[in-house]
């Protein structure tokens, strides 16, 4: 008779927690549940997510019809292109009768988990839920969210735990995994928000609540009426999520408080933003969190004392430390590759104290012509220019260099970093490598605007400027797409340097542009891309560039030399404002050409073999035109060309 007496108060306490009464006491009572009871409550709470998801599916058949978000005739193309054999099985599941039957069985299985089933029956029901969710995933690509992801993870692990129910270590490993994933989800969410000025300033919540998808007009009005409380709420969310690992501190005493707040947070989101399934999906992880943060020994329903197996967290910790140590070794080796460079770099120490590494390409045949200086974009390595630099160097002296902090170049300037420092360094580099020879500046992305500013300072020595898919100082003010990209860049750059310092560079996906550049440059380029100093330099530059662009007064640098403006086709297709801004560059020059590289994106315009060849052809023709222009109109001596051609013969 002891068992019912013990189980009934816990069940009532749990129900009162779900109704919002006695949350702390109820959660604390859950922390003393046995392993079997924790598994039961985890699968029951998670089953509600499955039930709601299937009922939503069955209630919205229009989503699968023509024009619907999940019409299989459209979605199937993705799978048939990548895995034709696997896609045939998905075609079978996509049959309306089959998918409806699967959702009906999923809903029935979800309800069944609330019944007093035997262990084998629970294994069977959980297997049905896991298998059906896998089979149906392809039919619901659009509209699924984090709730579906966390519910599948929990469901798969509970199925594993139930399958190995006679091995407590397996069940405990599964519960530890669920617990750690829950803590990680909240923590990563908080730390990802932390670099965002929108979150730190308190603007994030009203910005979310005013949207059509997640908005609530009444709540938005309240937030506008009480801005201080709104800002306090935003800071509260940040603090709560970032501090979530504290659930493991002080023998788990803070865990009930954190989970109580988390539950109320999801209930609030369900009311304001319509994210009802998130409450049930994350609530399903709470029993595991309480189990792993609670006492290691506990008494089960039959007064049997069991001991929790903590091998998984110990192994995870050991693996994490090993990975971090390995990451540091790889980071040091990568840094050696970066500092070694390409082997033919020269260096210049600028007035600011920075040491810039540069390469001079082009033989004796190019000695009497112009010096072409290639200026890179933000967070870009000079290896981006490899294809174009190689082509131009056949006829012209061509210089590539790394800005301070990139590659072999070192940032050593004293005092506050200023935007003018970037331009000053480029100007000094141009004067150093060109001497008295004419200069042509070629800039990509941010490098385009930097080239315009440097040309203004260099004066008549600059005989031509080429802008390749260039940034414009008004883009953050006038282009929604660029403004959104700028905010995303701010957030990303806030995390990248520290992540690379921790040795996590190998986790960065190998970018496609690395495999598009010539093989001899790939090792160096990839090492630079995964180097912490590159990202620290990019963050330092972006801070001052962002300020410069946001305060732009509408007056472009004075352009006195002939100009060529080259725009990537995808830029033109996706951002009409950027096309207008490129037109403004051309309109500001005394002589201007404009070209569109069809199909090229912002990186491909330099790194793709065909796109780069097209750009090189345009630049070569532009340089030849400058040869035929008298020096006072931006060209250089015709004798230079005759001498060069004579040398080639």
TrEMBL record:
<dbReference type="InterPro" id="IPR000073">
    <property type="entry name" value="AB_hydrolase_1"/>
</dbReference>
<dbReference type="GO" id="GO:0016787">
    <property type="term" value="F:hydrolase activity"/>
</dbReference>
<keyword id="KW-0378">Hydrolase</keyword>
<dbReference type="InterPro" id="IPR011020">
    <property type="entry name" value="HTTM-like"/>
</dbReference>
<keyword id="KW-0472">Membrane</keyword>
<dbReference type="Pfam" id="PF12697">
    <property type="entry name" value="Abhydrolase_6"/>
</dbReference>
<dbReference type="InterPro" id="IPR050266">
    <property type="entry name" value="AB_hydrolase_sf"/>
</dbReference>
<feature type="domain" description="HTTM-like">
    <location>
        <begin position="64"/>
        <end position="294"/>
    </location>
</feature>
<keyword id="KW-0812">Transmembrane</keyword>
<dbReference type="InterPro" id="IPR029058">
    <property type="entry name" value="AB_hydrolase_fold"/>
</dbReference>
<keyword id="KW-1133">Transmembrane helix</keyword>
<feature type="region of interest" description="Disordered">
    <location>
        <begin position="629"/>
        <end position="649"/>
    </location>
</feature>
<protein>
    <submittedName>
        <fullName>Alpha/beta fold hydrolase</fullName>
    </submittedName>
</protein>
């Amino acid at each position: 008779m002891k068992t019912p007496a013990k189980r009934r108060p816990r069940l009532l306490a749990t129900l009162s927690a779900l109704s919002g009464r006695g949350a702390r006491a109820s959660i604390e009572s859950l922390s003393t549940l046995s392993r079997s009871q924790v598994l039961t409550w985890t699968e029951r709470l998670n089953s509600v997510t499955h039930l709601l998801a299937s009922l939503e599916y069955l209630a919205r058949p229009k989503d699968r019809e023509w024009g619907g978000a999940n019409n299989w005739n459209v979605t199937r193309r993705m799978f048939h292109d990548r895995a034709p054999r696997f896609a045939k099985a998905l075609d079978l599941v996509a049959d309306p009768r089959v998918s409806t039957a699967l959702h009906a069985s999923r809903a029935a299985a979800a309800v069944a988990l609330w019944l007093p089933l035997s262990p084998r029956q629970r294994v069977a029901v959980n297997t049905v839920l896991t298998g059906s969710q896998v089979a149906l995933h392809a039919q619901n690509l659009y509209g699924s969210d984090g709730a579906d992801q966390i519910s599948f993870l929990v469901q798969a692990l509970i199925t594993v735990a139930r399958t190995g129910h006679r091995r407590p270590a397996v069940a405990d490993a599964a519960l530890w995994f669920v617990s750690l994933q829950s803590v990680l989800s909240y923590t990563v969410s908080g730390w990802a928000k932390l670099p965002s000025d929108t979150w730190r300033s308190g603007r994030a919540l009203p910005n979310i609540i005013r949207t059509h998808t997640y908005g609530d007009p009444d709540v938005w009005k309240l937030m506008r009426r009480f801005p201080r409380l709104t800002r306090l709420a935003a800071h509260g969310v940040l603090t709560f999520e970032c501090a979530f690992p504290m659930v493991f501190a002080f023998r788990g005493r803070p865990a009930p408080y954190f989970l109580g707040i988390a539950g109320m947070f999801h209930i609030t989101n369900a009311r304001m933003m319509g994210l009802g399934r998130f409450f049930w999906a994350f609530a399903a992880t709470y029993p595991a969190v309480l189990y792993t943060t609670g006492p290691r020994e506990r008494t089960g329903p039959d007064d049997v004392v069991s001991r929790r197996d903590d091998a998984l967290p110990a192994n995870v910790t050991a693996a994490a430390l090993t990975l971090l140590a390995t990451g540091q070794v790889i980071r040091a080796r990568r840094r050696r590759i970066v500092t070694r460079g390409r082997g033919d770099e020269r260096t210049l120490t600028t007035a600011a104290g920075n040491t810039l590494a540069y390469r001079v390409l082009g033989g004796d045949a190019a000695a009497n012509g112009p010096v072409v200086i290639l200026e890179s974009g933000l967070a870009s390595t000079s290896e981006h220019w490899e294809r174009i630099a190689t082509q131009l160097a056949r006829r012209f002296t061509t210089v590539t260099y790394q800005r301070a902090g990139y590659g072999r170049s070192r940032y050593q300037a004293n005092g506050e970093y200023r935007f003018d420092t970037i331009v000053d360094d480029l100007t000094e580099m141009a004067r150093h490598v060109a001497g008295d020879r004419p200069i042509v500046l070629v800039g990509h992305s941010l490098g385009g605007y930097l080239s315009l500013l440097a040309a203004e300072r260099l004066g008549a020595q600059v005989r031509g400027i080429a802008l390749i898919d260039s940034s414009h100082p008004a883009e953050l003010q006038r282009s929604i797409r660029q403004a959104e990209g700028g905010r995303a860049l701010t957030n990303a750059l806030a995390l990248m340097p520290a992540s690379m310092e921790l040795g996590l560079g190998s986790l960065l996906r190998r970018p496609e542009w690395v495999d598009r550049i010539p093989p001899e440059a790939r090792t160096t380029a990839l090492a630079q891309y995964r180097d912490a100093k590159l990202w620290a330099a990019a963050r330092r530059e972006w801070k001052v560039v962002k300020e410069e662009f946001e305060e732009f007064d509408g007056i472009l640098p004075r352009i006195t030399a002939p100009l060529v403006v080259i725009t990537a086709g995808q830029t033109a297709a996706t951002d009409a404002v950027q096309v207008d801004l490129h037109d403004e560059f051309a309109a500001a020059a005394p002589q201007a050409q404009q070209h569109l590289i069809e199909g090229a994106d912002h990186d491909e315009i330099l790194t793709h073999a065909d796109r780069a060849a097209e750009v090189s052809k345009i630049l070569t023709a532009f340089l030849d035109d400058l040869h035929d222009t008298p020096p006072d109109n931006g060209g250089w001596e015709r004798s230079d060309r005759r001498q060069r051609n004579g040398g080639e013969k």
